[in-house]
């Protein structure tokens, strides 16, 4: 069963830690609305339901239009007297039963939810009145009210609290408390994330194996099926949309309802657009210019005749609302083998990832992991001749030039959301020593000793989503990449930089972009990789060429 009551307890602990001293001794209450069922535009056609992440964290409840009322009375420890957790779900009505799946009965819901009490949502006003009477002086915590980011808490529930003489309602603390609690995962959550990764890893492998079949068999099966739709076993991959369709189909077959984010399926130089998600272009059959989206030549049946290019797929599904986030970059054309330039860039991205893995353990600041990727990139570019060897590595890092090739962060927290708990992810920026965000009531400058040019300039860290030390139980992505984006290279004046050999850079630009992304769990003294699909060159080329 989903450990909702433990999550409520952990959130109360975080809440109390955030509160000013004078508020800590008051009875604490959490009042939260779950997501409502959405409809497509102005119609009665339901959208697929996805529970709001914070509500799911505290209830494990996937029933639309539900509410949570949890209370903790200080004076005893949370362990001795855990909070009460009351869940309110809607009553099934005739139309629900006829048109869709109705909410469960109270008895059925009690079997699957780890809460103190379950009742119908219509009884919530009475429960709030009883709570106000039993807990005089209560501080009632909500998420930001009237914000499009969270489900609306109807005024009939919040008005009696605001009107009450001794109680008070506040939305200053709950968001940060929830994110602090969600930052480290328990065993149940790790297993859900592991399963999302296992399904998504298989889906990535399926795409690679179908690419390999295309190389091996050409379009024979398609030709044989002329005149009727192709069956799934006959699908081959000749364009981005087909790779996306196979990835999603593979996840759905295994019971996953949602993708954790829209898949990014980018071939050729489109791989340099970080969050490209048009996924609507054919593979190019001839040389392509940067961001040339059109293939003007007739299709060439044998995939090995396709102009060699990479296919970057950044895709991960959800399993019971927990995310995976995996990127693999694979060869297309060239008989399913990377070109020498693509292989060199791919191997360098693997080196960046290995250097990151080698650092992972509790206590290591994430800025450090990010910096090691920049230094690995600079060393690698010097080895490949893209950067000149005269200037030393520190000079190049200090110039900020590497950010034009690796413009995003090395990773982020992952959990119920793919970019999880943003409000507590940027605790301390180690480069400038400034405390960036840490929830309400904790904004104070923190100075670090080792702030110097060895960190490189702030632009190298601009899009780093995590700025804090790792802790046991955190789940993060490790996703270095190297891109040849005409826009970013132009802005950085890379071709005229004294650090760059422009002719060498031109040879690598057609690679477009390479990213390799795995999800890891930070353990007591090291890490565990939750992503199972392999990424070594030998295996990726073996599968994509149909040889393995
Ligand atoms: N899938 C988006 C990211 O990797 O952050
Ligand atoms: Mn990703
Ligand atoms: Mn990611």
TrEMBL record:
One MF term in the entry's GO annotations: manganese ion binding
BP GO terms, sorted: proteolysis
Cofactor(s), names only, from the UniProt record: Mn(2+)
InterPro entries named in the record: Aminopep_P_N (IPR007865), Creatin/AminoP/Spt16_N (IPR029149), Creatinase/aminopeptidase-like (IPR036005), Pept_M24 (IPR000994), Peptidase_M24B_aminopep-P_CS (IPR001131), X-Pro_dipept-like (IPR052433)
UniProt entry keywords in alphabetical sequence: Hydrolase, Manganese, Metal-binding
Domain Aminopeptidase P N-terminal: 2-150
PROSITE patterns: PROLINE_PEPTIDASE (PS00491)
SUPFAM superfamilies attached to this UniProt entry: Creatinase/aminopeptidase, Creatinase/prolidase N-terminal domain
One Pfam family linked to the record: AMP_N
Family affiliation: Belongs to the peptidase M24B family.
Protein name: Aminopeptidase P N-terminal domain-containing protein
Lineage summary: Eukaryota, Fungi, Dikarya, Basidiomycota, Agaricomycotina
